[in-house]
Write a structure and sequence with these properties.
5% helix; 1 helix; Tumour Suppressor Smad4; 148 residues; six-stranded antiparallel β-sheet
Length: 148
């Protein structure tokens, strides 16, 4: 901004105004291997052994920390209902909370109109394509997605 008026990226502390200008994010030039730091050797081996077209969710935080869920079907349901493919037993999870659906490019996650919402990388979503390393939050559960 060239005017003397403070803009949305300005911060005023009387009697001075500081102007912050960000640097645009740059896309990586090549795909990187998934970040497996902090994973057990068993989890790392499981991720490396995934068949093409499958994916793995590992519970990072929540009542079942460390639990693993294999995505290997065209549709995988998640919720508090005992018939869910991914049973997440906590009151913060709706009975039919979310659906993981296979696409030619991987999996998408779709919220089923749950009370508390479904989040990917801390943003509430209706539906979004997943990428390795994405964090999916369903209620108190935070799961990290790893594609084959």
């Amino acid at each position: 901004m060239s005017s003397d008026q403070p803009g949305p990226d300005d911060f005023t502390v009387e009697p001075r105004t500081m102007r912050f200008q960000g640097v645009p994010a740059q896309e990586p030039e090549h795909a990187e291997a998934p970040d497996t730091r902090g994973l057990s050797p068993e989890d790392q081996a499981t991720i490396e052994a995934l068949r093409p077209g499958t994916a793995l969710l590992i519970v990072l935080r929540g009542p079942n920390t460390g639990a693993r869920f294999l995505l290997d079907d065209t549709e995988v349901s998640a919720g508090r209902h005992p018939d869910s493919d991914i049973f997440l037993d906590d009151v913060t999870v709706s009975r039919k909370h979310a659906l993981f659906a296979a696409t030619p490019d991987g999996y998408v996650v779709r919220d089923f109109g749950s009370l508390n919402g479904t989040y990917v990388n801390r943003e509430r979503i209706d539906e979004i394509a997943l990428h390795t390393g994405d964090e999916v939050q369903i209620g108190k559960f935070r799961l990290v997605y790893y594609a084959a």
